[in-house]
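Open question from group meeting: does this chain pack into something compact, or does most of it stay loose? Before anyone orders reagents, we agreed to write out a predicted structure and look at it together. Recording both the input and the output here so the notebook holds the full record.
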Amino acid sequence: MKKRFIYAIALVMSVAMPVSLSSCDDDDDKNSVRSTSASTAADSLDYAADNAENWGKYMQAVATYLNADATELYNDWNSSYDGGASYASNFKSAGQAGASSFAAVEDATQQIIDGCIDIANEVGEAKIGDPVALFAAGKTTDALYAVESWYSWHSRVDYSNNIKSIQNAFYGTTNGTKSENSLINAIAAVDAATAADVDAKITAAINAILAIPQPFRNNINSNEAIAAQDACAALKDALEKIDISAIPEATLQQVNVNYVDNVVLPTYKKLAEANAALLAGVNAFVAAPSNSKFEALAELWLAAREPWEMSEAFLFGPVADKGLDPNMDSWPLSQSDIVAIIKNGDFSALGWTGEYDEENASIEAAQAIRGFHTLEFLIFKDGKARTVKD
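Structure tokens returned:
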């Protein structure tokens, strides 16, 4: 997830809002966000006859960009990157002068670990930590809007899948089993205690996240949310203690090859296929809108979302260099701009061209009105698929 630090977001839909908590209250209500039904001017922004055409075209535009980005990302790793060899070849050829951007085999393996450290930190400190900190500071509404994936109420699954992406990176598979040539086995061969500690803390972080009461946005200040944040911090600390210097180069080479072939490529292949299916579903909905097709779109979005979240332990290479991460996963969104687009039907601001520059304001603005979460907003409301209004 490309984190955008914008929390003063316009209220554009009916949302779960907190009960007012008095500063003199002493009961347990102060430790949770209670859900009530709140009506806002956003009710008029439901999918309806007066905006159906623009709504459908917006979904098509976003799904088209997602499909293109997912396809490009897979092709960069699998086929050719920037007109040369694939990024998979670049990674697996680490240490070979002229064949790789990695000067040593160990550098590529360390990149695997660093990617895992980054996402463990992001889940704990940003995805969970930002809402928790805002709530603790008394900024309850800001805390609610800082929660990623709140339109679909899919936050906990997203975050746990981020940690599972770490597990996949260390296990060298995507099915929860440990490959013979896995990073976790290579570490265990030289430091069994560290390997066991990392393995245990990965599982503990996954379980702690899933223990947060559903939905997370209604339980931001729960004890379980704090525990999940702590579990992610403990995992990050364990990952940072890993020392691969004693592992033979030949073993690291096997780890790197296995990681690319059995984790990265299958994950990105699934991402590309799922986003192609999502685009097809959007096109089918636009051709003949119905409640059942909204429900089908919700399932297709969830299916496309999973491999993306499972890839966040390797947000390096093409996904970072080309801005494909913020293209697909910027959060929070510019909801006021999204609402304006639904009303005016002008989708030109979604695209950008040229070399990616993360400091470019116009690129950032484009990324804030497209991607998974924009499509999530267009498909979901209050954790459920939207409906077709008369």
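Observations to bring back to the group:
DSSP finds 15 helices and six strands in the chain.
The beta strands are 2-3, 16-17, 36-37, 330-331, 380-381, 384-385.
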